[in-house]
Amino acid sequence: MSSISGMEDDEFSSFFESSPTLKNKEEILSKLNRFIELNSSRQGGKRIVCVTSGGTTVPLEQRCVRYIDNFSSGNRGAASTENFVNAGYAVIFLYRRGTCQPYCRSLPDDPFLECFEFPDAKNIRVHASHSEAVKMAVMDQQAAIAEGRLLKLPFSTIYEYLQMLRLIATALKDVGPCSMFYLAAAVSDFYVPWTSMTEHKIQSGSGPLDISLAQVPKMLSVLRSNWAPKAFCISFKLETDSKILIEKATKALQKYKVHAVVANELLTRKEEVVVVSNSGNVVVRRDCDNPESIVEDNLIHLLVDRHSTYIKESHT
Amino acid sequence: MSSISGMEDDEFSSFFESSPTLKNKEEILSKLNRFIELNSSRQGGKRIVCVTSGGTTVPLEQRCVRYIDNFSSGNRGAASTENFVNAGYAVIFLYRRGTCQPYCRSLPDDPFLECFEFPDAKNIRVHASHSEAVKMAVMDQQAAIAEGRLLKLPFSTIYEYLQMLRLIATALKDVGPCSMFYLAAAVSDFYVPWTSMTEHKIQSGSGPLDISLAQVPKMLSVLRSNWAPKAFCISFKLETDSKILIEKATKALQKYKVHAVVANELLTRKEEVVVVSNSGNVVVRRDCDNPESIVEDNLIHLLVDRHSTYIKESHT
């Protein structure tokens, strides 16, 4: 272990020690182990990807009324999950509660208002315009879960997210190069350390409020060096300023030694992304001539290919 | 107009002037006016309540990646809306996008996974255990909307919330004492003024972050004194510390001259609330001997009675 990763490990230990304990830790762990065991024992040994999705919250009070949040609909993670399942992967979907779910992208905002009708008190009918969307949300999603190809695990706070990610990474250690991390979640960079946090609701009425936030320890380094050093690892970089995007993605690639960074800009992220890696930058676009096409179709295709090469090279 | 409300009006004018403009303002206004017209022309003249629900977000960046949020599931507002509709009110439900919807309280967290099955590719079936919940979400909700008893208007930011509330209050002015505001939304006390906000994503990597937040101008005063002075007005006070709750609710009652303040504590808010008003404090509990009972059943019952008295007194 290098001295750098040792240092980051220490930083993490103190972060975790001061975090509120993860509820249902045993339950999560048992679901996780069952899922990994099932998929590792499949013929040929399954590839398993952990897709993280949605933003993490940072509580500002211990009995939390206020928190800082990161904007993320979870669309990227949900769509990518479907693509990974279609490509034969087993997916651990670590998602922010309330964000977009796999197979549910085509549902309207208010599905119970718009998708259904009751022609009489006994029978429910799906409106023709939404029948494909509902079928996908129910049939395809239930099938993926029933067949053990999809495990959904929800989080809300940065504390839950990092503790669950560590559990998953540790549980996937034996899967080695066949495991992958696809870290699409929008993780907070700043937080209020739990121990220095006020217990009760911050009172208004006494003028402006100044909040001082500490940096969240960089999880990527420790994930790469300690938690799951053999896994294929993809991180994301979102910026609103296109001028600094590629530069920041390239820096992240070098600093955290991930296998690729998916660079995306807030306004154009549904049209194109840039995959930044040591073999150069590749622009990935959605197929413009197919209105159903999404950028994740081509993105996951590219990453699955890269993962195949990585697995082959690891075995030689 | 007193000098105090004049002052607050100024504060509000500058808040609104520096806010990003409300999208779809014309569309919202036309929906609103149609809804109010329909209900005012019903026999006897309808009572109309504006129920606000969920938390407001406070963007930290103009192209918003990070924001401060207030914890609120929207359960209180959604359940209260159903009770108001049952009591014969027309309800304008001003809610935070993604929070709990009226008639949807009994649905599970992941309804498309848990409520339905497709026995074949053509027919959808509701699991018996969720049939009542789905029927309520679809039939009852659609009926309330189709009959013009429920209008749903979504918001996300504090800017949208306050601008929409002003639109609603102004549109309801002619309904006079028959209108009611039931302000259950968790509105931010602090915000970053739009004009002093950074355009792009705040960069991490340069040490801790200090945020300075200004106080949101108190909307309650101006709602009471200018926007809708004749409406019956109920505000909410949520605290995590029971010791200061009633004191703070009483202060709010006096300061904003609302007709009642519903005081609730974070941990016990589903079991009991205290209605604080000039006629004394009343503890309202849910019926413990009925597991289906919720605290909103008794709360709305009490407030509808109070509203009736208020209307009678206004006419004499």
TrEMBL record, chains A, B:
One of its GO terms (biological process) is coenzyme A biosynthetic process. Residues 48-94, 169-281 form the DNA/pantothenate metabolism flavoprotein C-terminal domain. Pathway: Cofactor biosynthesis; coenzyme A biosynthesis; CoA from (R)-pantothenate: step 2/5. It comes from the Eukaryota. One of its GO terms (molecular function) is phosphopantothenate--cysteine ligase activity. Keywords: Coenzyme A biosynthesis, Ligase. SUPFAM superfamilies: CoaB-like. InterPro entries: CoaB-like_sf (IPR035929), DNA/pantothenate-metab_flavo_C (IPR007085). Belongs to the PPC synthetase family. This is Phosphopantothenate--cysteine ligase 1.
